[in-house]
Amino acid sequence: MAIIESLEEIPVQNPQVEDFSWADLTWTKFGTSEHHDDVALIPYSRVDEFIIGECSNAECPTRFHIERGRKRSRGSLKEFKSDEYLEYRLYWCSFGPENYGEGGGVLPSRKYRLNTRNRAARPQSMRGCTCHFVVKRLYARPLLALLIYNERRHVNKAGFICHGPLDRDAIGPGAKKIPYISNEIQQQTMSMIYLGIPEENVLEKHIEGIQRYCGSDATVNSLASQYVHKLGMIIKRSTHELDLDDQASIKIWAERNKKSIFFYQESSETEQFMLGIQTEWQLQQLVRFGHGSLVAADSTFGIKRLKYPLCTLLVFDSRHHALPVAWIISRSYLKSDVEKWMKILLQRAQSVEPGFKINGFIIDDAATEIDPIRDTFCCPILFSLWRVRRSWLRNVVKKCDNIEVQRELFKCLGEVVYSIWDGVDTSKALERLTQDFVGQTAFMQYFTSTWLPKIEMWLSTIKSLPLASQEACGAIEAYHVKLKVKLFDDTHLGALQRVDWLVHKLTTELHSSYWLDRYADESDSFQNVKEEYIASTSWHRALEIPDSAVTLDENDILVAKVQSQKDTNVTRVVWNPGSEFAFCDCAWSLQGNLCKHIVKVNTICENRGGYGDSMSLRSLKEKLRNIKMKPMDDSIALDLSMALTLQMCEQIKQLVQLSGTDDISNIVKDLPVKWGCKKGRTTIGIPASIAAFIKKKSKKRKR
């Protein structure tokens, strides 16, 4: 085959089939006689279809992951070759590149096992497969992708097939009949066992998964049954207490699970105990849903009941549900300590995605140090009201018996918060609250002792920071409620003061629950799990309520009614509609939660007159109004504020265009060209040989 040195001579191929693979393309030798690769040109929009086709290889079914990636911005190169990349992705078979069986000579899942402490038949996923290819989005032609196949065969370094039905040594002598148990199947089986699903159902799904690699066989079913039973016994017998001493136990766990830890600091006389947990799957979700999006924090969970408070970092997935991507266990909220783990977490994400950057960070505690967040992530900070609302509503219901008093008291608490935008003196709003409800001794004692000393700090934070939306608050609250149900079970109340128990619960039950939720949604399997996952937030439950079920009284805007969808004879009453401090008489709301009836009513009130704006919209208007009211004589401040406003409006405009288009190339064409760096501007237009000569002449002489 002739070697081609110019990409212009290589034709663009667009197979007619939906998913295509290596065999459907004509490959060309590209490069020089000393170094050349097999390449093909395809439309960039069909890269995903090529990857799906490669994963569906009958001889070696697999999945490909991004091993390495790089990006460039348009206009960053003054001179470039035809094969320079705008985006570079190295895809590697998920059975490589590492080989976890090296060092022992024989893999634990082969004809006999090595003498390990864990006697479970748990085959490792890394087989040292060298199959990989590169996808380059061309700098000169962004609509095209250059495929470079470095190694097409699924073999190890020795040249032997290392996974799939043709690998005779993968799982003993019967590899043609016994399929390889991939990480995905193993994680699925473990998640179902951790969640308490009956063994019969676990075995059924396990066999369905392994049948993707081979047909049904009596031997396969028998060995699969043994595998599921043994794995279930190991999980049931496992314990969080690796040592009687809690500190020693967590140290042993940290040594065994280094891949799931991104920060660990033992307790000493000068340093506080800190443990940062993030599994490989959580890291993938952080990069996938956190890049260019929001990250939120549930910052002070278990501050009264656990030995060390738990802070959770959350991202919002494709359905805008809160997904935990990191857990930090520590009692220290010092700026220096927070900055330590935040920088390491960012570096960990950027090691997977070099251009990783978040667009906003949501906090829920006014005492949170915001300087480390700004210094590390360099992004705006938003504030979520869910913790304030939940705490006030729970105590109003708990400490006041009359529902009419509960409604009026909760509405008055909302007016205290609204006073920072209505131009009302906050001290007068608080004075009115204490005078009107002086008879509610239990609640007022709680409010004056817990909230009154720090109410100025909270209101100042609410006023100074933009507020998160009701949907984001509902998603964070849904995670908090699920975490509380998982951890504060009556059977484990005696272990709340042990860190190893907390780590065990997080990395087994809670992690498995969210992994199975995402897997069920993406693979369209486990329909019951998928339905529960979709309806896990009040926002999505509110979408199921039709507009016709909501009744708003034009004469009395303080009351709204919502007809129940399960029982049409039941009607829920929402008091103070259109406000974040609306009050509903349903059981879920009376527990302090944001219910679907309030979300639905507030959504309808946004499009009708007579109701006030939401707090997040008021906060945005206040920020814009402050910019508009800058005095003209303060010209530099006015110019800076106007520039920031225009930049924000431009970003919003681009985001709307990006979410509404089907072809990203139309937006890329309209992006402005970036200038070259100042240091290289003098060489623009000068031939490369002369420019190199000038740079060499300008260097200082080395002594």
Automatic annotation (TrEMBL):
Signal peptide: none annotated. GO terms for molecular function: zinc ion binding. Keywords: Metal-binding, Zinc, Zinc-finger. Residues 569-606 form the SWIM-type domain. InterPro entries: Znf_SWIM (IPR007527). Transmembrane segments: none annotated. Coiled coil: none annotated. It comes from the Eukaryota. PANTHER family: OS09G0309100 PROTEIN, ZINC ION BINDING PROTEIN. This is SWIM-type domain-containing protein. The lineage of its organism: Eukaryota, Viridiplantae, Streptophyta, Embryophyta, Tracheophyta.
